[in-house]
Amino acid sequence: MSLPQSLRTSITPPELEFIASQQLIEIIPLIAMEKTAFISGAFGPLQPPRRAKIPLWIAINLKLKKKCHIVAPEWLSVEFLQSRLDEELSEPGYSRLPFRYAEVSKVLLDVASDDIQNTDKIRSLLKDLREARQAKSREGLEELNRSELSLSNLSSMEINEIRPFFVHAMGILTHLHRDASTED
Fold first, then answer.
1. Where does the DNA replication complex GINS protein PSF2 N-terminal domain lie (predicted)?
2. How confident is the model over 94-117, as pLDDT tens digits?
3. How far are the Cα atoms of 19, 32, 115, 130, 157 from residue 101, in angstroms, in the given order?
4. What domains does the chain contain, in order, with CATH numbers?
């Protein structure tokens, strides 16, 4: 959702990707490595061809050095995304997706597209999902009232996109409600 510059006060998409880089992801290491301690925790040991779960930022680093293959999460498949898109188009609410699906999928498709099957179809499905969810967000914001807004199953990127508009609109609605209350 594109907003005017005056309403863009949220975290930027690259900052959200940085936050999402703490997500654990499965890899198939191509090198052996002892257990290594980082500020965020200890990870490893890595022993090929045994799978290991490590933070996305380490997986990206290893992948760029050609020292691992990244295993795509279950939700980053044509079947899963197609079922969520069908649900999105047929149901009134938002379909359940991982909270940081947008950020993680972008990073994985940029860095590890050779480890993911059907990347073109996945990109297309992610784009269609995004557009369908944005349309629902716009519809929901058109019916905005001061007492309730239910937007369960939104992702971090979607929340970040509507936050500035929502905060501004709720401020105006609260002000109008307060003025209407004092006139009575």
1. 12-71
2. 999 999 999 999 999 999 999 999
3. 12, 29, 17, 11, 9
4. 5-20+74-183 (1.20.58.1020)
